[in-house]
Design goal:
mainly alpha; two-stranded antiparallel ribbon; globular; 7% strand; single chain; 90 residues
C-alpha cells in the first residue's frame, strides 16, 4: 500500500491506501502471531488513523523485510498521489 504515498525505483503491486484496507490488514495481524507483529500492528494502526507521517520509513521497513535494497525513495506530493491513484485504480 505504500506505493500510493512513496515514489521508489523498486515497487511491485498496489493496493489503495484506504482506511478500510488498513483496518483489514490490522485485523489479520491481530488475529495471528506473525513475526514482527508488534511493529506491523503499529504501522497499520497509524494508517487506519490516516497518519502517514512515517510513510517513508515504513516503506523502507517493508522493503528490508522482503529482502530488497533500500534505494532512493521520496514521499509523493498530493498531485503525484492523485495521478498515481487515477492511473492505478481508476
Amino acid at each position: 500500500m505504500t506505493h500510493q504515498k512513496v515514489k521508489a525505483c523498486e515497487g511491485k503491486g498496489a493496493i489503495p491506501m484506504s482506511k478500510k484496507n488498513a483496518e483489514k490488514v490490522r485485523n489479520i495481524l491481530n488475529g495471528n502471531n506473525f513475526k514482527n507483529k508488534e511493529e506491523l500492528v503499529a504501522i497499520t494502526e497509524r494508517w487506519a488513523n490516516r497518519d502517514f507521517s512515517k510513510i517513508l520509513e515504513e516503506h523502507n521497513y517493508f522493503i528490508k523485510l522482503q529482502g530488497g535494497k533500500i534505494g532512493e525513495a521520496t514521499v509523493m506530493d498530493k498531485v503525484d498521489e492523485q495521478v498515481f491513484c487515477l492511473n492505478t485504480f481508476g
